[in-house]
Amino acid sequence: VPVSLAGTEISHDGVSFVPLPTGATIPGRGFVRLLANDKKSDGLHLPFKLAKEGNTIVIRRRSPLAEIDRYQYANQDEGVTEGRAWDGGPCGLNSATHVSEGARFRPGSSYPPTPLVRPGGSASNHARPLKRFLVTPDVSGTTNYLEWSDAGMLPPVWTYSPKQHDFHAVNVEDIAYRSETEMIIGLRAPLVNRTNGNAYYFVVTNVAAFLPASKWTRSLQGMSGAREMVLGGLGIRSIKWCAQGLTNAQGQPVQRYLILAGNANGGPIQREATRQKFALYAWDGSNANGIATPHVLIADLNGYAVRPEGVELINVAGQWRVLFVEDRFVTPGYGTRNVIHWPVSILGAVP
């Protein structure tokens, strides 16, 4: 459905605002290109230019006043484009002049870089240039704007461990506290067969022994060995103990862990699938021979959340709701996240 820009205004510095062009609309699933060229002629020209040293672009509704979106950009390089990978997402690129070694992203790290798939030559996880060719029509439909340039470098990344930048092969994703004798530590990666299979988790059976008042000066105590969890080949992205808010088929209150499961692999946005699967499970904490089998509540969260990273039950005005923390970025990097919540009824009866 086309969206009219009538009544909206834009700023190049977050202070001074000008109305967006009269009659401009955004087509359904489409975009409108605004030209910040300091021209006051008709069409999609804006009476200002963007500062090369960086600033903040803001779009807001004029009346009643409400901010719609903002994008903060840093110092700009000649011939390098910048933008979000999709609505609300980052570009995920390094500068074309950025030097990457293996999968080391932290400058000055004392750890050796993560090795690539194979030494020498080209491999799928080597750094490589990314070129971008854009054809953007003017709103009048009479002119096409062409752009062809290096957008930057896709950084190197390990192919199956999402955060293995400095030989940190184990990715602890979340911790859920139930009692002094049960605290779950959930792993996103690795999976049992490294790239597939069950997820791993640990159980802290004595929190006081596991977290002594003094520093850790001895081997860990009060914790189980690694156990497996059947999540359909996904890793644990979030786990929360819910003492209230869930009910079974008989309408009786039940206490369960809520487990958000998602892809165990990852890396820069461009290296991830654009339609990754996320699922929601309920678990009572039990296992058989060290293998836990949670119950599926929602097999695919598409439509409920975009790239969810966290789950929690909240109570709003006496009503229980399921809250998801999403990876919808509104600032560059892993900064600001979006939150969305639904009535707990979307879970149905909890086994």
What topology emerges from the helices and strands here?
Layout (H helix, E strand, L loop, with lengths): L2 E2 L3 E4 L5 E3 L5 E2 L8 E2 L8 E2 L8 E7 L4 E8 L54 E10 L6 E11 L16 E9 L2 E8 L9 E6 L2 H4 L16 E3 L5 E13 L5 E10 L15 E6 L7 E2 L2 E4 L9 E9 L2 E8 L11 E6 L8
Parallel strand pairs: 5-6, 14-18
Antiparallel strand pairs: 1-4, 2-3, 2-7, 7-8, 9-10, 11-12, 12-13, 13-14, 15-16, 16-17, 17-19, 20-21, 21-22
Structure write-up:
With 351 residues, the chain is mainly β. The protein is built from one helix and 22 strands. Strands 11-12-13-14-18 form a five-stranded mixed sheet, with no helix packed on it. A four-stranded antiparallel sheet has the order 3-2-7-8, with no helix packed on it. The protein has a four-stranded antiparallel sheet with strand order 15-16-17-19, with no helix packed on it. A hairpin with a 2-residue loop joins strand 20 (308-316) and strand 21 (319-326). 23% of the residues are buried. Residues 85-94, 98-119, 157-168 and 329-335 have low confidence and may be disordered.
